[in-house]
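Quick one: structure for this chain?
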Amino acid sequence: MTRSNLLMALLMLTGIIVVGQLYLTIPMISAIAAEFSAETQTASWAGTAFGFAYACGFLVFGPLSDRLGRRVVLVAGLVAVGLATFLLSLSADISQFLTGRVVQGFLAASFPPVALTVIAEALPLEKRAFGISLMSFAFLIAAPLSQFFGAGISETATSIMFMLSPLYVIMAAALLMVVPRDQRAKPNAAGKPHSHLSEMFANAMVSTSWLAALTVLLGFVSFQVGTVLLAQDGGISAQTVRLAGLPPLALSLFAAYLSKRWTPSVTGRVGMVVAALGLAVAVIPGAMIAASAIISAGVALAVPGLIATIAGAAADHNRGLAMSVYTFCLFVGASVAPPLALSLSGIGTAALFGLPAAVLLIAALILTLAVSRRAKAHSLQPATGER
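Got it. Here's what it folds into:
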């Protein structure tokens, strides 16, 4: 196995166990409530507490990797996650558990944006697009796999955290051996090694991709939570619905090919429209299994498509920050989804699945307008002399 292939294998495996923490507690809410003698509504914050801290951490660790280098942030972050996960296993009450989830989520944010930037910088040019697709697949497959694990194991939440804690340290040691040392960002032409957000907000391709990212996991996680809620009412098996959504996630492996054929932004937008279609199908009685497959297929194209769009549009000196804001937006959407789904479920399935579908379509339209404006501006450059 070549060094680059080993690097990708380790990053994918680590991505599954890191990102899986976001989804792990979705099927365990009742078990967490029982373990700590807490209300179910309070226990449901185990996912949201992790998710918001996770999203906020991206804004810290991506820019930090621009300054300190990717390798040190990646390795130190995983060791810290392992320690936080171990301490979480010692929680004596629900307050300590939720506080621990906040700390765990914040530290876990050291992995995804830095891993994506390592792929963009460390892999050979011909492997980068496929590397992004593989990493996207790992992030996505973490959702059903962690839920299968959480729903299928009989251990308490704290026992599960104790079992998982050494895995992060083991992966840190392995990545220390294979991640290149020279991952520090280079200065830009003006001699300034770090950019400001204003520079990237002025880049319509980057800023509208961030907006689109807000909607992707909002729709995906809203469907996951909706599946659990509908399963509680009877009539469907949550595990069967999750299983139906597992194979289509492999479409993310073909996103690199589609991005070359269609461009990354087209791939991302097609994925968003397909995911919205799947949410619309979910409103139809008895169509949850088909909806699961369609939504997973859409998300499998949207996530790597948007990653590749941002990676290509951002400059070398701000790519870490650009990826950080992208992942922040992605998982803010995922964090908002559970309480939003709980609220919308009281109105009906049309609201529960229809609202996320609508925002996906709106975001896809906005991104399309940005692409169109950029193409028009480029076509005018030879005639106007604009740069």
